[in-house]
Amino acid sequence: RRRLPGCSLLVPPTVSEELGWLTDHAEEMAEREAAQTFLRKHRTWGFELIRTTPLGNAFVEAIAERLLQAALLPSTEANDASILAESASLGCFVLLTSDEHLRGVDFQRLSFELAAFDLTAPVIATPREIVRKFFR
Fold it and tell me: Which spans in 1-136 are helix H?
């Protein structure tokens, strides 16, 4: 927080929904407990859960569908497409994730597809990559 004053740590709607689902349905107890802990402490850690995007659900769904049609993500990864569309529509500069499908997205193609919606692609990285590169 000291190194990036004024930045917002946003949790897109689909991520919030997935965390809620994990609190009750995760197969591994550690994953269930991690989701519960995050939802309980997110404010203390400086995260803001976003319920809806300013551009509206229909617009975000259209973006997500386009990302799937362009085969930027596997067709089975509708939630990942929604997370990416929500992040772009929220104006996020960076999307922190450990999800392999999201991390494997071709940034140039993503930028091209999002430009059609007048949006900018966020840089996709893991939290570990950000810490290693910028906060040692």
Answer: 13-25, 29-41, 57-69, 78-89, 100-103, 107-115, 127-134
